[in-house]
Amino acid sequence: KGAASCSIPNGENGPAPTTRLYVKRWAIVFLFSSYSLSNAYQWIQYGIISNIIVKFYRVDEFTVDWLSMVYMITYVPFIFPATWLLDQKGLRVTALLANALNCVGTWT
Q1: InterPro entries attached here (predicted)?
Q2: How much of the chain exceeds pLDDT 70, in percent?
Q3: Domain boundaries, the chain
Q4: Which residues, in sequence order, are CB contacts of 105 under 8 Å at separation 6+?
Q5: Residue 53 has what pLDDT?
Q6: Global pTM value
Q7: How far apart are CA 19 and CA 5, in angstroms?
Q8: Cβ–Cβ < 8 Å for 78, 97
């Protein structure tokens, strides 16, 4: 139930391993995509309405642009520990930590 399978011949060695699709995998893809969407949205959200932010907070546009630049600047040094964590602890721990930090950043 909830799974589809596919078998492709593998030349001399017989049939290839069966690939199965589970509903749980689609749920995980949805959760990961939702996290990525919220992360990307927060990255550029103030750049979209920079004219309103400039008037409301009485700052220059350069300051508003730096909010999105901080994401790119911090990406470079933090990709290395994130890659190490992904390799050592796996996708589940890394995704949960990333979501928690994304939540804290949003609240801040």
Answers
A1: FLVCR1-2_SLC49-like, MFS_trans_sf
A2: 87
A3: 32-107
A4: 42
A5: 92
A6: 0.62
A7: 5
A8: no
Contact 97, 85 (CB under 8 A): yes
Contact partners, residue 20, CB within 8 Å, separation at least 6: 3, 4, 5
- DSSP-assigned letter for residue 85: H
3-state secondary structure 6-74: ECCECHHHCECCCEEECHHHHHHHHHHHHHHHHHHHHHHHHHHCHHHHHHHHCCCHHHHHHHHHHHHHH
Q: Write out pLDDT tens, residues 32-69.
A: 898 888 888 888 888 889 999 999 999 999 999 998 88
Q: What is the mean pLDDT of the chain?
A: 84
Q: Are 4 and 21 in contact (CB under 8 A)?
A: yes
Q: Would you say 44 and 53 are in contact if contact means Cβ atoms under 8 Å apart?
A: no
